Structure formats: structure tokens, C-alpha cells
Amino acid sequence: MRQEVYERIKQDIITCAIAPGQLLNEGELAEKLEVSKTPVREALTQLQQDNLVELIPRKGYLVTTLTLRDIQEIFQLRLILERAATVLAVDHITDAGIDKLERYLEIDFDPDDHSTLYPYIQGNKDFHMEIAQASNNGRLVRDLARVFDDALRLQCMDLDKGDVLWAWRRDHERIIEALRKRDKQAATAAVEEAIAEARLRLLSP
Fold first, then answer.
1. Residue 162 — pLDDT band, cuts 50, 70, 90?
2. Can you give the residue ranges of every domain in the chain?
3. Do 68 and 40 touch, CB atoms closer than 8 A?
4. Comparing 2-63 with 68-203, is the CATH topology the same?
5. In the chain, which ranges are continuous DSSP H helix?
6. 68-203: CATH homologous superfamily?
7. Burial 96-127 (b: 16+ CB within 10 A, else e)
């Protein structure tokens, strides 16, 4: 029950159904989710560890906001870690692993159906984490997973910047093609370009 409540609140925060800066009340959340306060309290504690909420004494939990510095730091870490993961993955990923990456291209997002948003950005995270797994470096996988948890709201915001679905798909196709060729230079260039363009879209007025 706690995990289910955690996932539901987390999804609402990431997709901004619960807005940044909003104060969360345990009782109101419990009533909305039709559960007791205990799993809500446990879920909020876990979300605090994820840096998605912060405890305000005697008031409740506040949904954290993303500052310009947060955005810059997240993209800097993504660039460092994903570039390293991609270089290592070129040496270790199997043909079956690359075939699996291609299946993520089939996941779609309907801008008119909000319920498809979270599965789509989660699928994008899974795509990049598959590459990280192929690096055979457990610490790199762990650190990148944490960065992507921080980045999920940014990806949600990215999709609000217009028709960027083609850009995401193009980026993934370029990465897959480079991995099939075992071309480290092309693979890292594709990753670097994808991250740079996403950063530019988010920071543009």
C-alpha cells in the first residue's frame, strides 16, 4: 500500500498535476487516495528522500521547486554520467540489448491524453538506464538513476515546449545506430547533442 501511494503521489508531482511549491496535507491526500494516513506519511517520507518534497514543521510537506541552478546541475551530471555510460556500453552491449532499446521507440505519447505522459517519460528514463546497465558499472548505474529521478520533471517540462517527440525519437535512433556500429565517437556525440538541445529548450523563454 505504501509503495502504491508513493508511486501515485510521485507521478502527480513529476507530471505537475501537483504543482511545485504546493503544500501537501496528509489528511487531504489520504482522503483523496482513499487510504489511511499511515501509508501517506510513509510515502511522503520517501518522497522527501527523493528531494521531491520538503518537510515544513507544523505545516506539512512542500513540493520542491526547480531553480535555474538545479536545472544546470542536473544537465551537467547527465552529460558527465551518460557520456561515460555510453562509452562503456559500446564495449559491452549485446545485439539483443540493442534490439531491446529499439522496442522503446514503440512507446508513444498522446498530447491530448495526460495519462500517457508519465509512462512515456518513464520509458525514456528506462531507455537510458538500459544503456547504463550495459556499462557493467554498478556505481555508475546507481548514480545515473538518481540523476534521472531528479530529471523526470524536467523531461515533463520539455514535452510542454512544443512538438519535441520527433526530437526524442531522432536522438534515440541516432544512439541506437551508433551502438550497432560500435562507434564510440558517434554514440557520445548523439548523447551530447540530445542533452544540449534539451537544455537549450528548457532554458529558452
1. low
2. 2-63, 68-203
3. no
4. no
5. 2-14, 26-33, 37-49, 68-92, 95-103, 117-133, 138-159, 165-180, 184-203
6. GntR ligand-binding domain-like (1.20.120.530)
7. eebeebeebeebebeeeeeeebbebbbbbbeb
CA separation (Å) from 68 to 36, 65, 145, 146, 179?
A: 37, 10, 21, 19, 33
| Its pTM surpasses 0.70 | yes
Query: What are the contacts of 26-33 at 24+ separation with CB within 8 A?
Result: 26/60, 33/5, 33/8, 33/9
Q: Which long-range contacts (CB under 8 A, 24 or more apart) does 158-163 make?
A: 158/198, 158/201, 158/202, 159/109, 159/111, 159/117, 159/120, 159/121, 161/201, 161/202, 161/204
Q: Is 138 exposed, middle or buried (0-12, 13-18, 19+ CB in 10 A)?
A: exposed
CA distance 180 to 28: 51
pLDDT at 116: 86
CATH code of the domain made up of 2-63: 1.10.10.10
Model confidence at 114, in pLDDT bands (50, 70, 90)?
Answer: confident
